[in-house]
Amino acid sequence: MSAPAAAGFAWFIGLRYSFSRKRNRFTSLIALVSMLGMVIGVASLITVLSVMNGFAGELRGRILSLVPHGFVEAGGEGMSDWQQRAREIEAMPGINATAPYITDKVIFVNGRSLHGGVLTAIDPQQEARVSRVTHALRAGSLASLEEPGFNLVLGSVLARMLNVGIGDSVEVTVPRLTVTPLGVFPRSKRLTVTGIFEVGAPPDGYQAFIGLPIGQKLLGPRHAVDGLQVHTDDLFAAPDIMRALGQNLPADYRVRDWSQTQGSLFRAVKMEKIMVSLLLLSVVAVAAFNIVSTLVMSVAEKRGDIAVLRTMGARAGSIMLIFIWHGLALALVGVASGVVLGVLLAENISTITRFAENLFGVKLFDPSVYFITELPSVLQWGDVIAVVIAAFLLSLLATLYPAWRAARVAPAEVLRYE
């Protein structure tokens, strides 16, 4: 028998064994449990990976709406010629806007409420070109930082922790010392809250903004800035664009992009996705290796058939292929059903969670506690293909030992007792 004919013969008999109605009931039950386990494992893995993709996308979109694509920082006494440097940088390929900034860690105080945070001095008009903080304002305006007075715009969570609103005052202490005739004191200033922003991400709890002229007095360096914020044409090309920019700047300039300033957070999300994938893949592995017990029982049940096939000229390899196809047929039905169920769940997880909330009268994601109000989900077909390949390989591995045992059945010993 030729190799293609033997393969077709093995495939046909393997399918007959998988879906025959004359099988032992207990063997059929074990096979059904194996398929259901595969369905649940594959569907869970696809759904959870899609939800984690959604979380990562939400986190990236919200944080990077506030954080510029890149930074150019000057060493020493700061960047005094920042206007000229900004024009030079904006003329370079891939860069469409820049904005000056000064930033430092400070302590915000209101009565007994005391919290650390980051205070950044900006030019509101230039800032609107490199970030979307203007669109994130929930009260007040960013333009108020250009008005006379010592004005402050801060994140909604930070405002809630300090128990302040529009028009309230906040004492800001900077870790810089001021020398006076009475001694050395930390630099502090009372600022008036004129705006509150909310991006739905961690910066809401620590970030605040003041106008650039006030920042030069409070944070220093006077008449200079710490550096320039950079907005590129393509967010994901920003690392390459900033790297190329760094090669055209003086040696004492430092260039960073968002993957460096926020990289630890996104690496943590990526690592969490990998670990959750491995944990859920163990469910698929358990379901796949349940196929071992199904095939072992099937081999014991089909010993007579194996003996007859061997006496009719079937080779050991053909017998092995029969039971490999037998196990893979069961696995592929489970994997295919799991993919369909997983894709449906991933595409409709938000609708399902809203239905559950309405049905049970509970709020799964309280906006006052979480940065999101519903489960985000982004289905990536690359993840689906990876899950299918992993499940198929585990199933194939699970079929090898029972198929090998079937190929070693001795026809003479079986037929002696028939």
TrEMBL record:
Keywords: Cell membrane, Lipoprotein, Membrane, Transmembrane, Transmembrane helix, Transport. It is found in: Cell membrane. One of its GO terms (biological process) is lipoprotein transport. It is a multi-pass membrane protein. Pfam families: FtsX, MacB_PCD. Belongs to the ABC-4 integral membrane protein family. LolC/E subfamily. The chain crosses the membrane at residues 30-52, 274-299, 319-345, 384-404. This is Lipoprotein-releasing ABC transporter permease subunit. Residues 279-410 form the ABC3 transporter permease C-terminal domain. Residues 32-234 form the MacB-like periplasmic core domain. One of its GO terms (cellular component) is plasma membrane protein complex. It comes from Mangrovimicrobium sediminis. The keyword Transport applies.
